Amino acid sequence: MIKGYVDDMIKKIRAVEGTGYTFTITPPMTGNTEADNAVLDDGDFYAFDAGLNGLKALLNIATAYNLDVDYDIIEADPLSAINGPSGGLTSTLDSSRFFTLKSSGTTKMSSALSSLKDAVACLDKSYDFVMNSDPDPFTDNGINFHEMSGEEQINLENWIKFGTNTLNGPADFPLERGDDGVSFTGDDKYLRMDISKFFFAPLDRTDLPKFGYDLPIDGTLSLQYNSPEHKVVDDESNR
Questions:
Q1: E strand or H helix at 170, and its extent?
Q2: What is the pLDDT of residue 184?
Q3: To the nearest 10°, the Cα dihedral for 32, 33, 38, 44?
Q4: Are strands 236-237 and 232-233 parallel, antiparallel or unpaired?
Q5: Which end of the chain is more exposed for a tag (fewer CB within 10 A), N or C?
Q6: Please, is 156 exposed, middle or buried when counting C-beta atoms within 10 Å of its C-beta (0-12, 13-18, 19+)?
Q7: What CA–CA distance (Å, rounded) separates 191 from 174?
Q8: Coil, strand, or helix at residue 181?
Q9: Helix H or strand E segment including 96
Q10: Considering only CA atoms, which of 166, 158, 147 is closest in space to residue 43?
């Protein structure tokens, strides 16, 4: 349902991208009479497109998996989602299906990858428009990458390049971190990453480590306290 709205918003935004269309948000529209007009242009439209495609990718990933849990016991027995209920608790859900791909999962993961590629491409277009084509980036109150420092601009350009490359195959990721986060400048060491593999060979429950409680839980106590609880043994509580 939500994905349908997102698709519709992307379609409407793309209808005006690259056409020279602008939209002015006036103070009455925001309810703030002291605000200035904000003129939305391609820099903003492409950025919105990027954000919506990022959201679409997340929705596709989330709906690609079986993630159903039994809400009646999940707080009392969190590991029941993976291992099935314990401590005398019961559930009608088949825990062996948790974190497995649905029948449409492969298609959804492929769609998620396409959406992420679109998101990075749109961010690149937004940045390029604001930096090179926006007639009034300092006065339209829209997105303004000019306000970033020179180093921040270089970093963003390299993040965009890295995102584009790693969504299509192996790409080098810097390990060095500075005060402003990961930096692509300087004598960095690199780790080669291929994020596209996450979508071509998605993780599932076979990739999870083995989880278990240190001591068996008591289902009755766990339900009472809405958390995994163990029986009192020799006047000592092992919670």
A1: none
A2: 59
A3: 10
A4: antiparallel
A5: N
A6: middle
A7: 6
A8: strand
A9: none
A10: 147
Whole-angstrom distance between the N-terminal and C-terminal Cα of the chain?
41
Task: Read off the pLDDT of each residue in 91-120 and give the average, rounded to a whole number.
Answer: 97
Would you say residue 49 has pLDDT above 90?
yes
Nearest Cα neighbor of 127 from 161, 171, 85 is 161
Q: Among 45-59, 136-150, 175-189, 213-227, which stretch is predicted with the lowest mean pLDDT?
A: 175-189
H-helix segments, the chain: 2-14, 27-30, 42-64, 80-83, 105-132, 150-166, 196-200, 219-225
Tokens of 237: 């509580």
- Please state at what angle helix 105-132 crosses helix 42-64, rounded to 10 degrees: 160
Q: At what angle do helices 105-132 and 150-166 cross, to 10 degrees?
A: 150
pLDDT tens digit sequence for 177-193: 555 555 555 556 777 89
Whose tokens are 């990933």? That residue is: 61
Tell me the mean pLDDT in the region 190-209.
93
Biggest alpha carbon–alpha carbon distance for the chain:
77
- Cα 57 to Cα 110: distance, rounded to the nearest angstrom: 9
200 CB contacts (<8 Å, ≥6 apart)? Answer: 109, 113
- How far apart (Å, rounded) are the C-alpha atoms in residues 56 and 33? 34
Cα–Cα distance measured from residue 108 to residue 207, given in angstroms and rounded to the nearest whole number: 19
Query: 211 φ, ψ to 5°?
Result: -110, 145
